[in-house]
Amino acid sequence: QIKKVLKNISGILIPGGFGKRGTEGKIAAIKYARKNKIPFLGICFGMQMAVIEFARNALKINNAGSSELDKKCYPVIGLLNEWNKNGKLIKGTNKELGGTMRLGSYDAELMNNSLIKSIYDSKTIKERHRHRYEVNIKYKEDFEKKGLIFSALSPDGMLPEIIELKNHPWYIGCQYHPEYNSSPFNPHPLFLSFIENCI
Q1: 44 with 34: CB under 8 angstroms?
Q2: What average pLDDT score do residues 109-131 get?
Q3: Active site residues
Q4: Minimal CA–CA distance to 83: which of 144, 140, 136, 22?
Q5: How far apart are CA 125 and CA 114, in angstroms?
Q6: HEC string of 72-86?
Q7: Which residues contact 15 (CB under 8 A, 6 or more apart)?
Q8: How far is residue 170's CA from residue 34's CA, in Å, rounded to a whole number?
Q9: pTM
Q10: Where would a tag sit more exposed on the chain, N or C end, judged by fewer CB atoms within 10 A?
């Protein structure tokens, strides 16, 4: 069914959002983009859905998910205060949501020889965030062995900011919101690169 719906598309963008409704469709569309070498951009929630898709289908973690969506899942995504220093799950709670949001501008360090570094042409970037849930750094090595690279991290190396897929023409997920730093006459470099590759 998804092949029929998406067969003539030039690119897939999964934006930010929240809540469980529609997530399995998003995950299926991301899998289609990954398998069929279609340009893909995942923003915030979209990046998290890409991580879940890859965990399920490349790492074979069948019940991989986000603690936002399912408290019984194998959480590769969780609240900021759910991970300890080693990335181990501590607890899942919604009691103090106001204290769990990452909001505002944050630095990220870009990996050498990565697609994202060639797009920005910079070693460090500053981008705006608005989210509560993060990718668990604990699985970085497992993902990278299978080809999903964490190509930008927070300066302390604990928070994945950007993912990209090896052996794919253009596949990027970012935890931040590039649309906050974009306008019609001064578009964000990620959007320019994504659209160029879709064309």
Answers
A1: no
A2: 94
A3: 44, 177, 179
A4: 136
A5: 14
A6: CCEEEEEEHHHECCC
A7: 43, 44, 45, 46
A8: 9
A9: 0.89
A10: N
